[in-house]
Amino acid sequence: MLHLLPVEIALQVVSYLPIQTLHRIVQVSRAWFDLIDANESTVYRNAATLHRLVQDENCDDLASQASCLETNWKAFCCREFQIEWGWRGKAPSYVEELSASGASVHRIKVDEDSGLVITTSQRGGLLVTNLKGNALLWGLPPSHVVMYAHLEYDHGYIVFNRLDNCKEVWRRVVDADNEDHCTESPPDEDMLSAWAQGTFRWDASTRHGHFKPWALLHMPDHARFFRLSYQTLLASAAENAYVWDVSQGRLIETVCDIQRRHRGRTLGHIRYVEVNDKYAFICGSNQLRIFERGGGALVYDLSPRNLARKIWNILSSGKQPAHNSSIVKRQKLQQSNLTASSSANDQFMAVHVSGNGKDIVALTICGVLVIIPGFQRLISGEATLSNIAVQLRFPPSDRRLQDTAIYLALSEKDGKVAAVTRRGLYLVSPDIEFSNLTTECPPQPGVVVSRLTKFEDMPLLSFVSCLQITRTSIYFNWKPNRQDAHPNRGGGNNGYPMLGGRLITIMSTVYRVSF
Questions:
Q1: 71 or 360, higher pLDDT
Q2: How far apart, in whole angstroms, are the C-alpha atoms of residue 133 and residue 146?
Q3: pLDDT digits 0-9 by tens, 198-233
Q4: How far from chain centre, in Å, is Cα 375?
Q5: Do 134 and 115 touch, CB atoms closer than 8 A?
Q6: Burial of 355 (0-12, 13-18, 19+ CB in 10 A)
Q7: 231 in Cβ contact with 244 (< 8 Å)
Q8: Which residues of 276-331 form beta strands (DSSP E)?
Q9: 394, 423 contact by CB (below 8 A)
């Protein structure tokens, strides 16, 4: 009967069918085959949007990209669905050790478009390796990059800290054209000397993966926590936060008095910072605060004590991964209530904002993951936290509840979340199951939670100091040689491994799990 309807109505009906069904119905009816074949691009473009494989605003860009790559929406949907099944353990997953990235990795940044993995070391130094060939491309020596340097990277800019509280900015050589460096905050002699020495060491036949000194940012105050988003760097000190344009090396804004009392509480000890073009996000031990760019007004704050009562406990599943070649095992979810006693001593440790600026995710030290889609509705008063937030609780540590969470990562484009806890490495993906997409009130929580079965050793999980997530892969440091040690990670994602009050060096390298 579908073929008897006007084409516009028939295509509207087909747009609600899952991709698996689209593959089957063309084998059942010649009329259906002709309809879908004649309108293949439209049908699969609608399917991509329905299954949240793309956002509506990205469709035109992807269509142009698909044309350039001589592919089509059908091929795109098939590939994306294969990846989505991989995230859920229903398709193969692949584990790879990127040994060229170093043997004592501290921080990791990945640029899959350029094929680069950038790491800093616990022993000092910075390395850039080729993602495809696992080969070393360029680097800076330990004499120049401090031990346990925090690393930021975005759109061809590297930023890392040094002992004098300045932040070094290096720029990808292929992007700098004929520019030597920015003029407002030029690099110093140490940076220029490190660059000159590197020209003799690294292969000059290709500039792939090479960086040059671009700027030296002199912080007005001791700003330990910093985050780079495209060309904007947010660096936070105890009382004020500073917004820089790294391309120009210029301080463009100061968010003053971030500790001012609000709702009877200060911000507390800084744990993590995040930034986009509209807001600065600062995690403190007492509150998560959102400040408006262009004035510094405090527009929203959240304390763990004020989280919504409804929460979903993540339970370990006894079943093996659905696919024989997968290490991803789906976890069960059980609805429960968040009690006042369990959140009384909790603290936020990290926050991330999505690439489109619409959603935020936050993680507490007790292992509560808070996903807030459309968070600006909280700022405007259009919605309440209990109405829009999804809250998940990871299994607690055997040691104590306040020592559960270790690291948080958010994919920029598709809403996927990865988190490391004392109990495992977890993946949280938006639920794209057809039954949840067509109901008027989709069942909560609307996410699928999985765990990587190969990385469950609790002593080893304690030493993970970085985690990155992309559309197809997750990256993290693994394989320490101190299995009996239990480091104290004060400071959340920016903490250093401690043993007996002293810094320790952990032998670990970058691992990649891809789908």
A1: 360
A2: 27
A3: 888 888 777 899 999 999 999 999 999 999 999 999
A4: 17
A5: no
A6: middle
A7: no
A8: 279-284, 288-292, 298-302, 310-315, 328-330
A9: yes
Q: Residue 354 in 3-state DSSP?
A: coil
* C-alpha to C-alpha distance for 442 and 445, rounded to whole angstroms: 9
| Two tokens, residue 234 | 């947010």
- What's the rounded mean pLDDT across residues 234-256? 97
- Cα(182)–Cα(176) distance, rounded to whole angstroms? 10
Burial of 181 (0-12, 13-18, 19+ CB in 10 A): buried
Give CA separation, 118 vs 128, 130, 172, 188, 485, in Å: 5, 9, 12, 22, 27
69-72 LR contacts (CB < 8 Å, sep 24+): 72/40, 72/41, 72/44
Tokens of 407: 């690291």
| Cα torsion angle, 447, 109, 421, 92, sign | positive
Asked if residue 445 has a cis previous peptide bond (ω within 30° of 0), the answer is yes
**Which pLDDT score is estimated for 371?**
97
Structure-token match 């996927």, residue found: 416
Comparing 245 with 58, which gets the higher pLDDT? 245
Cα atoms found within 13 Å of the Cα of residue 226, Cβ hemisphere only: 32
What tokens appear for 3 in the block? Answer: 């073929």
**Nearest alpha-carbon partner for 339 in 304, 372, 315, 371:** 304
DSSP assignment of 202-226: S--S--TT-EEEEEEE--SS---EE
Residue 167 bridge partners (DSSP): 161, 217
Torsion sign over Cα 211, 214, 220, 226 = negative
d(CA 222, CA 378): 32
Tokens of 453: 């079965």
Q: Residue 1: what pLDDT?
A: 63
Q: Is residue 76 within 8 Å of 40, Cβ to Cβ?
A: no
User: Is the model more confident about 78 or about 142?
Assistant: 142
In this model, does residue 506 exceed pLDDT 80? no
Supply 188's token pair.
Answer: 């110093």
Find tokens 């699928």 and name the residue: 448
Residue type, 290: I
Whole-number Å distance between alpha carbons of 446 and 431: 5
Mean pLDDT of all residues in 142-155: 97
pTM here? 0.88
Cα separation, 283 vs 348, in Å, equals 6
State the Cα–Cα distance between residues 186 and 250, nearest whole angstrom.
10
DSSP state of 238: S
Task: Write down the pLDDT at residue 486.
Answer: 45
Here the tokens at position 205 are: 């036949």
Task: Give the whole-angstrom CA distance, residue 21 versus residue 241.
Answer: 52
> Among residues 229, 233, 230, which one has the least CA distance to residue 218?
233
Q: How many residues does the chain have?
A: 515
pLDDT, position 483? 43
pLDDT at 238: 96
Quote the percentage of the chain above a pLDDT of 90.
63
